[in-house]
Records
---
Amino acid sequence: MAFLRSPDPRTGLYLRWPLLAGVLIALPFIGLTGYELHLLIISAIFVILSSSLSLIMGYGGLLSLAHAAFFGIGAYTSALLFMNFRLSMWVGLPAAGIVSAIAAICVGSLFLKVRGHRFVITSLAFVEIMRLIAVNAVDLTRGQMGLPGIAAPILTIPGIGTIDFASKTAFYFLAVGGAAICVWTVARIVHSPIGWGLLALRENENLGESVGVSAFRHAMIAFVVGAFFAGIAGSLYAHYTGFVSPDLFFFSYTVTMLVMVVIGGKATILGPIVGAIAFTFLPEYLRVVAQYRLVLVGVVLLATVLAFPNGLVELWSRWLRPALLHLRTLRSRDNAA
Amino acid sequence: MLLEVDSIFMNFGGIAALKGISFSVPEGQVVSVIGPNGAGKTTLFNIVTGFQKPTAGQVRFDGAVVTGLLPHAIAKHGLIRTFQKTEVFPALTVMECVRIGLLNNFQPSLFSVLIGKAEVAAFVKNSALDVAYILEMVGLQSKSEYLAQELSYGEQRLLEIAVGLAARPRLLLLDEPSSGLNAEESARFSTLVRRLQKQKITIVLVEHNMNVVMGVSDQIIVVHHGEKIAEGTPEAVSQNRDVIRAYLGREWVTDAVG
C-alpha cells in the first residue's frame, strides 16, 4: 500500500497513519462530552459524503449536485427495510450502498452522456425528483411525517458479549470505520490507472478519448462508487438519528457537501476530511453568537475561499511546510557552524 | 494497406465538406494531406478518428471497419491522433499527462484495482520507465515535473505527441503539428517524424509547412474543396497543374510548369 505512505504530489502532505488511528481510537475515551462525540459522529458521516463527492467532482471534474439524492436513497432504503421487515442495520447498510449504486447506474447511463451545465442541471433535477417522491409517495414513505424510530443495531459476539450501538461511543467507531473504508477506497482508486483516467476526463475529455480513455466509463465508475458511499452514509445517518424525512433531499445538504469538498481542497485525499470536520464543528460552535451565526459562517467561508483557493490543505502546502523546511535548513546551518 | 479511407462524404446542412474522398496509407509510410484552408482536412481527420460521423463512406483500419466507433474504441486499434489546436491536460504534470496515454494499452477493472491485483501494480511500476523513455524521445525529459500549462507552445505540441506515442500508435495522425513552431522547432519536429518512421509507426500528416511536408513525406495527397485533386510523391505533386492552380490561382499554372 505504497500510496498511503507516499506524500500527496499536490500538497506534499502525507499522514502518519498509525498515529492517526491511535488518536481516532483514543478520542471517545478522553472525556469528551456527549455533544462533542455527537459532532464527531456527524463529522465522520460527512467525511464519507465529502470524500466520495470529491472522487466525482474533484478528480472526475463532474459537478454533481445529485449526491444528496444518493444519501437520501441510502437513508430511506435502510429505514424502510427496518420499518417494514425489521431488518437491522447489518442488512440495511450494505443494502443502502447497493441500492444507491444501482440507482446511480440507472440515472448515470442517462446523465453522464451530457457535460457541463447540462449535467449540473440534470443532477439537480434528480435530487428534486427524489424529494418529491419522498414527499408524495405517502403509502411508502409517510410523506412529510417521515419514518421515526429506526433503531441502532446490536452486535452479539459469542463469548464476549453484546455491543449496543445506541451508545454514542459504540456508534462513533462504526461511523469512523465507515469513513476509513471510504477514504481508503477513494485513495486506492485515485492512485490507480482508473484515477489517471478520471484526471483525463476532468482536464481534457477529447484528448483522453483520443488515447483510448473512455470518458463515459470513468465518469460512471466515479459516479457509482460515489453513490455507493453516499448510500452508506445515508444508512449510518438513518440508524444514528433514528429518523428519516424528505428533508434529506434538501438543496442545503448538497451545498454543505460541496462546501466541504471545496473548502477542504478538492482533488486531494485529506481536503474533504478537513472540510467535513471544519464545517461540522464550526456552525455548531458559532451558536454562541446566536443570530449572527450564519453570517459568521458565511464570512469564514468567503475568507477561506479567498485566502486558500485550493482549499484548507493549502494552509499546509503554502505556509506551514515551507516554514518548517526553512526552520530545518536554519537549524542544520547552525549545527554546521 | 494499413488505413483505407473509402469514398467519404460529409455534409454540414447544405454544405458538402467532403465529396467522396478515398485514399489509402501503406504500413510504414509518411503520408501528408495538404490543401488550402477549408479544404476539409481536419474534418477528414475527425471522421477517421471517430470524432465526427461521416454522411456516407467507410474507414477501414488494418482490414477492420472503424466507422461509427467512438474515439476511444478507435484508439484501441492503434489509430491515434493529435489536434490542430494543441491539446494537453493543463493542470497535470508532464509525467502525468504522458502516463494517461499509457492507458490505451491497459485499463484495469474497478475490482482488480480494489483488491490490488499484481498486474495493476506492475503496470503502475513500469509506467514510470515508459514515460521516461517517451519523454526522452521527444526531448522533454527535463520537464517531467512541470505542469503542462507551464510549457511553451512548442513544448506543448511535443507533449501532445508524447501523449499520443504513449498510446502505442500503429498509425499516428498529426494535425498541423508544426504550426506555430519556429524554424528550429520545426526542424526538430522533422527529425522526430523520421525517428518515428524508423520505429515502424505509420504517419499521416496534415501540414501547411512545405519544408516539413517535402522533407518527410513518402506520399502526398492534395485535397481541395472536399475532393482529392492529386496524389503522388512530393516531386510529382509539386509539378501538378491542378495543385498549383488550387494554391496559387489559374494564371500561375503556365509560368510555373512552363
---
Amino acid sequence: MSTAHSNAAKEFLKNQTYAKWHDATFWAVRTKRDNMAYGLEEWEQLREKASAIKRHTITHLDEYLDQFATKAEENGCIVHWAKDAHEFNEIVYGILKNHNVKKLVKSKSMLTEECGMNPYLEQHGIEVVETDLGERIIQLKGQAPSHIVMPAIHLNHDDVGELFEEKLGSEKGNHDPTYLTYVARLSLRNEFLTADAGMTGANFGIAETGDIVVCTNEGNADMSTSCPKLHIAAIGLEKVIPNYDCLAVFQRMLCRAGTGQPTTTFTSHFRKARPTANPMHIVLVDNGRSEWVGNPEHWEALKCIRCGSCMNTCPVYRRSGGYSYSYFIPGPIGINLGMLRDPEKHSGNVSACTLCNSCQALCPAKINLGDQIYMWRQQLDEFGTANPQKKMMCKGMSMFYGSEGMYNLGTALAHWANIIPSPIINCGLNPWAEGHKMMEFPKKPFHKLWKEIKK
Amino acid sequence: MSNKDDILKKYRANVRERFFDERSGKTGFDMPDLSDIKAITYPNPLVQFVKMTEMVGGQVIEVDPGRDVNVLIKELFPDAKEIASNLPEITIATRNPDTAGRARDLNGTDVGIIRGKFGVAENACIWIPQTMKEKAVCFISENLIILLPKSQIVNNMHEAYKRIEFDKEYDGYGVFISGPSKTADIAQVLVMGAQAARSATILLMPE
C-alpha cells in the first residue's frame, strides 16, 4: 500500500545519521523563523495583509500585468510573454542567439527549473553556469534541487569537498566549508567576468514602477548582471504585485519566514539595463497559471512567495527529504503545485502529509496548504490514481462501521487477534505493522468502557 | 493575437468565471488598507541599526566630525592596493567606476567605497541607488565601505519603501544591502563572502 513518496523515502532513510541531521537542521531553521516572527508584534497582522494583497492581486492580475509590462517598456525594457515552458525556452534561446551568447551566468530561478531551461539551452550549445553556491554544487553534481531555498541541503561538506576536488581542483581532503566556499568564489568570479549574458529570476515584479526585485544572500544576482552586456529576467505571472507599499510587507516576511534572517543581504531593484549594456529583457511566463486561477479549490496556491517555510516545518519533508517527492518543488506547496501541474503524475505526493497543518499555520501568505492536500485526496478517484487496496478497505470499513451488529461483534472478537504469533502478524503483508509494531486490540472496546463509566 | 493578449484574455476569463459576484457586480477581492499596519519602531533607531548591522556580520564605525575618512580607511585596510570609488571626498581611490573601460576591469578591487542614502533599523538594510557608471563596484570589491549619514535611519521597510528614489542620471538600478555577502549552502555552515564583498564596513558620517 506504499505510495511513490513513501517508497522513495525509504532510500532517504537508509542513512539514519543523515536523516536525523536533516530533520534537526530544518527544525533549527523553523526555530529561527519563530524567533523572527515573535520578534515582531505585527507578524500576524502582516500575514493577514500579505494574504489579502495576494487575493486582491491574483484576482486582478490581468490589470497589474498590463501595468507592469507597460511600465517596464517605458523604462526601456523589452517584454516577452511565454504561454508555456517550451515557448519560454525558445524565447530565451532566441534572445541569446541574437546577441551571440556562448555563456550564460544565472542566479537561482525555480521558474527556469520548472521550464527545464538549462538542458534546453545546453542542447543548443549554450553554456549555462548557475551562480548561487547551492545551485552550482548540484549543477556540478548533475542533480536537481532538493529544497527551493537550500538546494544542496542533501549533501554534506565531504560530498561537496570530493565534488570540488574533482571539478574545481580544490585541495585533497580539505572539506572545510569556508575553504570550499572560497574555492567556489574564485571559480565563479571567473565565470561572471567571462559570461556574455546574465539571467535572474524575480522574487517580485512591481506593477507601478516596472521593477524586477531579486533577493539574494550571496550577491550573485548582482554579480550576474554587473559585468555581462545582457540581462534577461524570467518571472512567473503571479510574482507581480501592485506597488512598493505591498513590497514592504513581502520583503519583511520573505526571509524571516524562509531562513529566519531579518532580511536577505541584497534586495536588488532592476528597472533597466546598465548604461553600458544592451536593453534588458523580461520574460513573463504563464505555463499553467492562467488556468490554475480558475480552480475553485486550489487557486490560492498562486499566493506563494516561495519562502520555503512550509517545507522547513513539515514533519514529513524533514524526515523524507526533497527527492522523495515526484515534483521538483517538494513539501506542502510542492504537493499542491505538482497536483495542479499534472495530477496523474504527482498523486503519489498527496500522502506525504499528516494533515497536521503546521504549514498553513506558518505560511506568510496564509495559503491553506494542508486543507488543499486534503481536498486533493478526495479527488484521487476522479484522476484514476486512488490506491485500489485502500479503496477496498474503505468500502469494507464503511460496511463494518455502518452496521451496529457487525461492529459489536467485530470489536468483541478483535482481541483474539493479539494471540496470533508476531512473526505472522509482522510478516510484511500486514500494512498496519509496516514500520512499527502491530497495535494490540483491547479486550473491552471503548464504547463498552464508556457505558460502564457513565453508570 | 499576440501572446500577451492571449494570456491576459484567458486569465481574465478564468478569473471572471470563478470570482464574478452577480449581486455586487464585482470580480475578485479588494485591496486591503495597508495604512493601519502597526509596524515596529525603536526608541533609538540608530542604536538598533548598529546592533542589526553587527548581527548580520557588518562592522559600524562612527566618524567624528572633522575626521578625514581617507585616513580612517587607510587605517582600516592598510594593505589595500586597489581602492575604487567615484565619491569626491575619497582621494585615495586608485580606480573610478565612472571611467573604468569595462565593468570587469574593476575585478581585483581590494576596497570599494560607495554612498548609502539611508539605513533601516529593523534589518540593517542600506538603500544604495546606482550613482556610478559601473555598479559592479558595489559587488566585485573584496571589501565594501558604505558612507552613511548618521541622521538618516528609518525604523522599518514600510518607511523605507516610502522614500526610496533612483538616481536621476543612473535611473535603472538600486539595491538594499545588509551586511556582507554570505551563504550557508555547504552543510548549513554560515560563511561570509560568497560571490560579492567579503566584508561590509558602515561609516556613520556626521552631518
---
Amino acid sequence: MDKIVKIYSTTSCPYCVRAKQFLKENNITFDDIDVSANQAAGEEMIRKSGQMGVPVLDIDGEIIVGFDKERIKQALGI
Amino acid sequence: MYDLIIIGAGPAGITASVYAARRRMSLLVISQDIGGQAALSGDIENYTGYQFITGPELAAKFEEHMRKFDIAVKENEEAVQLKRIDDKILVKTNKGSYEAKTAIIASGKRSRELNVPGEREFKNKGLTYCATCDAPLFNGKVVAIIGGGNSALDAALQLIKIAKHSYIINITSALGGDAIMREKINESEIVTVLNNTKVTAILGDRMVTGIKIKREGKVEQLAVQGVFIEIGLIPNSEFAKDIEKNQFREIKVNCRNETNIPGVFAAGDVTDVPEKQIIIAAGEGSKAALSAFRYLARA
C-alpha cells in the first residue's frame, strides 16, 4: 500500500524544491503544505518535528528533517 | 579514472561542468547541494540576461543546463580529502573515493557561526542561517538579525514583509552593505538597528526566547522568537590540505585558475578571486574548465 507522504515547505527554500523534485522523480504522491501561507500548518510542523527548519517530511508518521535523501528512500522503501 | 572531478555544484562548479561536458571530458561532479549559495539568495537583479530572478529559480536553471549533458553527479556527498599522488588526483568523500587526471575545487563558502552559548542548541529551533529558507516561519514574530553587511540587510528586507518587529544587531558603529538596501531599512518603522552591539548568548528553553547583548558596557536581554545569523561566510577549503590558501583560508589561484598543485584548479567563492558574485563565480568556473582541458591536452 502507498505510504502517506506530507511535505512541509516554503516556496523559497531550495532544499524544499529539491525534496519535492526527488519525490516527483520517484512517482511518489505527496501532500505539499506551504507553511509560509498556512500558519496553523507551521505550528503543526514545529510540534511534529520539534524544530523550525524546512523541509520536514512526514512519511507515514516518520518525521524527517531536511532533504536527507537516504532516510527518505529508506522510509519510502525505494 | 575521470578526466576531471569537480567539487561543488554552485555557479562555478556547474558552469565548469557545462564547459567540460562540451569539450567531451569524462567528468564527475561531487557536491553536498546543487546551486550553492546562489540557491539561498533572495532576489537577484544583477545576473546579466535576467533583470529579475530569484535565487532558487536561477539555481534551477543552472541545474537544468548541467543535466542536459550526461554528467555523473554525486549529490549529498562531501569531499573530505583531495591530494595528488603521482599523476593522479585522489578525492575522498564521506561515501567513497575517486580518481581523476584533474580537479576543480568549486566548493564555495558556508555561513560563519557566531560561536556563542546556545547557538548550536537552538539551531533550527528559532535560530537559522538561511533567511530565504526559514523567514516565512516567523510570521508575526519578533526577530533579531545578527550582522551588518549585505546578507544581514537582505535578511532584514525579507523579514520586513513577515515579522512583527526586527532588530538588527550590528557589532560595528554603522551598517555596511549597499546604500539602496540601507535606505529601505531606515525607512521601515518595524526595524530597529542596534549598532556597537555584541551578541553574547542565545537564550531559550525548547525554542529561542531571546538573546543576550552587550552594548556600551552593559549586558541586556532582548526577547525575540527568531534569530537570523548573517555574519558572513567562510570557505569550504579544509579538505584541500596541501593547497595554498590566503589568510582568509581562500584557495590562492592565478588568472588561469591554477592552484599550487599541478592539475588542481579552483574557481568561485572558495578562491581568493576579488568580489564574490554569482556571475563572477560562473565566469571563473568556465575559465577553470578550459584550463583543465588545456592541461590535459598538454599532458
